[in-house]
Amino acid sequence: MPAEQWARASDGARITQVAGDCVTYAPGAGPAPRALLGLPDAPGTLVGRDGPVEELTALLAQDGPVVAVVAGLAGVGKSALAVATAHRAVELGWFGDRVFFLSLRGYAPDGGVSGPQAVQEMLRHLGVRDTDMPASPEARVALYRAELAAFARAGQRVLIVADDAGSVAQVRDLVPAGGAHRLLVTSRHRLVAPGFAGRVLVLDELAARPAAQLLADALLRARPDDPRPAREPDALAEIARRCGRLPLALTVAGAVLAGDPGLSAGELAARLAEARSRLEALTFDDGGVPVGVRAAFDLSYARLPADQARTFRLLTVNPGPDCRTEYAALLTGRHAGADAGTHAGADAGAGTDVRPRLAALVRASLLTEQPVGSGRWRMHDLVRLYALERGEECAEEDGREEATDTFLDSLVFDTEVAGSVLGVDGRAAAGPGLPSVAEALHWLDAERALLVAAVGFAADAGRPESARELAHLLAPYLKLYGHAQEAVVVMERVLALVRRSGRREDLGGALYDLGYTLLDAHRTQEAVERLTEALALFREGAHRAGEGKALNMLGSAYRRLLRFEEAREAHEAALRIIREQGIRHAEGTALAALAHCLRELGRLDEAIDAYRTSVALMREVGDRHREASALDFLGGVLGEAGHREESLAVREEALAILRERGSRAREAWVLGGIADTLRDAGRPREARARYEEAVALFEEGGGRRGQAMMLGLLGALHRQEGRLEEALQAQERACALWAGTADRRAEATALWGLAPTLSGLRRPAEAARACERAAALFAGAGEELLAGECREQAARLDEVARPRRWWRLRP
Fold first, then answer.
1. How many CB atoms lie within 10 A of CB 130?
2. Mean pLDDT over the full length of the chain
3. Cβ neighbours of residue 767 under 8 Å, at least 6 residues apart?
4. Predicted local distance difference test score (pLDDT) of residue 277
5. 3-state SS assignment for residue 245
6. What is the distance between the terminal CA atoms of the chain, rounded to a whole angstrom?
7. pLDDT tens-digit profile of 690-706?
8. Is 101 helix (H, G, I), strand (E, B) or coil?
9. Which helix (H) or strand (E) holds 16?
10. DSSP designation for 193
11. Dihedrals φ, ψ of 529, to 5°?
12. At what angle do helices 464-480 and 484-501 cross, to 10 degrees?
């Protein structure tokens, strides 16, 4: 049996036994006063963090976990959140004044406070003098736990806030035993380790509005009478966006503005728009140590092991908004499981070697996987700029040029395979080793932003051939699957590249391609200018095939501008040249374009014949996409000619092809055409179902214009059948969607269509306002006749809305 141990203290003396050692404090020389409630002041404002404060407060509650870790990128506001939440917990009476704050400086170059030093510092906070401190680290930990246990026995809870921990080792011994007390840790790392059970709350950058508010608050705290927040709110919002909505960057930007009262917010926003100098612009030097985003990131970067640092740098070769695991493996030259360059059918275990390094960067808050488990990795905008700087410094040792070539070659190959499977430029390919249509389309949709960005990246990286090849492989998919604006971006980059190269023989083709995409994007006048320029170059170089293509597209542009005779002449001239060249595919395209024009001129029988021939030619060459388009147009003109049953049958055939090809946006347009025919045939219930299908497809794909158009038609159908409330709902949605576009004429038409519905619901004053707004929009679009009609209707509705006086009620 152990020897009996006993002791007696008299007066103010105190005896504490720790790990077998007996420490006796003499009267008057007991523990030093405790440093209770040693929190820094709460932040003046904590904008946009209501949700995280609520979540963190819940973690500190009686039934919460013992350890909570607030993790996130440097400068995201972790310390401010932790301190503000600790103050709130005190206000709630949970910890009284028993709150202790430790600054661990975990990312300082000297390594900051070690785990044993942190325990020793806590003992000082708890009132233990250095002269009475146990000699061994183990004894100090035991004494620390004994002190906390004494609080627990007295029914008193303790909160320890350990700020800026760099590792679990710094805080492991601070974890309170039992369930009464709480340890709240902030760290750039998501502190996870065996035996350390901390609940991690990851703090992200602010939302757009709170970010702009934080910037304005930072400026006004320094200069309360500063006029810029009220005068330039849009510029402040742009600064916030360029700062990546990161609180540290926002406060630095606020200090820059406060330090230069003559600098407009717009000027600073313009300075931050230049990506290459943005980190430099987000540095504030008051003559001491410069404060800024780069310096904060330096500390995180310095902690990375060599292989993680190389991965971090090479990820910036990928110009897209995120990077899939397989491409990360390709860039870093590591095995990624299956064929890293194959977009479709890639093995589910692909990237098993590179994933641990990516996950480590996530734990360091330098990368995120969004959504979790997706294998898609994203950097904060400012982190990406920082990683790019480091990558360019280490380009040779990292093999950056080789990684760039490999990456671009892989994108070109993958895009070519996907396009051939979809048949975007002719007959579709199929066979062993090739992805399915669904897989190819899924890859193109998932990587669309990357592929568009890669065209510009290749051009800027001195790889013009890769840029042009990728652009020409990508453009047909963008056109056929409803991404016209992105196609314009791609072709504008190619044109700029060709103009720089000075190769005149390529210029006509680049101008034609841009004109074609501008036409799809409803930028008709610009399309005419580019196509006219291309036509002149083709004629100058005696390039007959190019001349025929340019004439055909010019005809389509003239038709959009309602210049139908010029359009017909251009199409017929194009058709003659194309037939002379014997290009069957181009002949089918030209015939369909001519048929559009003939239809507008009221020559319906000729238009039907031209469409039928176009369908046959597209079928002959195996171009299913353009066969579907020709069938859809044929169905439309058949309906106009009164052949409604054949019209429906033809359009259903087009619909089946588009569903086979996965072309959702074009499927929605065909559904709208079928609905029009059903409505005209007196089959409103079937028409309504097809309109609703079309609305859902446009909404799913983000097709704002199509959704607005179908909602307007659906609303008109509801009104026609007497369902005024349903009509109002659909038409108001249509008006809101049109308001978000630049198409003022369409918005005016939608508002004008809304007026009868409001009038039918006995809301004449609102109907009058809708007509007045429509009149203003029509006038702005140069449609004075329609504007006048709207004003007349508004006046009539105003008369109806005006209160009737008693004398007007006389018989």
1. 9
2. 89
3. 754, 755, 756, 757, 758, 759, 797
4. 92
5. coil
6. 118
7. 999 999 999 988 788 89
8. strand
9. strand 14-18
10. B
11. -65, -45
12. 150
